[in-house]
Amino acid sequence: MEEEKNNHKTPEEHPAEEHHKSNPKKEEKTVTLNESEYLGLLEEVKKGRDGWDKMLRNQADLENARKRIEKEKQEFIKFANEGLILDLLNVLDDLERTVDLAETGKEDLSAFTKGVEMILAHLYEMLKNHGVKPIEAEGKIFDPNFHEALMQIEDKAVPEHTITEVLQKGYLIHGRVLRTAKVKVSKH
Questions:
Q1: pLDDT for 27-81, tens place per residue?
Q2: What gap in Å lies between CA 69 and CA 144, rounded to an integer?
Q3: What average pLDDT is seen over the chain?
Q4: Cβ of 170: how many Cβ atoms within 10 Å?
Q5: Which terminus of the chain has a smaller tally of CB atoms within 10 A, N or C?
Q6: For residues 137 and 146, is the Cβ–Cβ distance under 8 A?
């Protein structure tokens, strides 16, 4: 009985024997084809290889296009504000000239004020050209989408929730709120 135990070996002890039992070698069979079938199969293999090569080329082209588009996007973002900055530099030049003239005493107060007003007009025009416009607020009914109430004031002369004073202008850019208007609102 003990001999039988010793002769019984676990798969761990002889893995090669176990592998041989579970994966018997398949016999290869010879298949006979006529020449036209053989040539047809060769043509199908060639088409498969060509299709595989074409798929790999298309995949590489797609990856290259993706990288190119990402690079172009980064370049666009980097220089998107170039036109706006150029316009602001013109305003900056005007302001520097005005300050220089004021410091040298070559301008009187009314001329200085007129110069600043012209710079403001130029700046407003530049903002308008870039799609920026002020939010109409004073005398309008408070709208939290466009206005931010900083104060409330008792005022029965106007309807409740009417904007009585603009504390800081708000602006839209291409119809979207860039900055809400900071306002004082009436209450009853």
A1: 888 888 899 999 999 999 999 999 999 999 999 999 999 999 999 999 998 888 8
A2: 39
A3: 86
A4: 19
A5: N
A6: yes
pTM of the model: 0.58
- Residue 152's H or E segment, with its range, is strand 147-154
In angstroms, the CA 62 to CA 77 distance is 22
**Bridge partner residues of 162 (DSSP):** 141
**Neighbouring residues of 188: CB distance < 8 A, sequence distance ≥ 6:** 154, 156, 160
Q: Which helix (H) or strand (E) holds 163?
A: strand 163-168
Rg (CA), the chain: 41
Q: Where are the domains of the chain?
A: 132-188
CATH code for the structural domain at 132-188: 2.30.22.10
109 class by beta-carbon count within 10 Å (0-12 exposed, 13-18 middle, 19+ buried): exposed
- Number of C-beta neighbours around residue 90 at 10 A: 13
Q: Residue 167: which residues within 8 A CB-CB, separation 6 or more?
A: 150, 151, 182, 183, 184
Strands 176-179 and 171-173: antiparallel
Cα angle at 146 between 143 and 151, to 5 degrees? Answer: 65
The strand pairing partners of 141, in sequence order, are 162
CA-nearest of 93, 160, 172 to 136 is 172
92-130 per-position pLDDT tens digit: 998 888 888 888 877 678 888 888 899 999 999 999 999
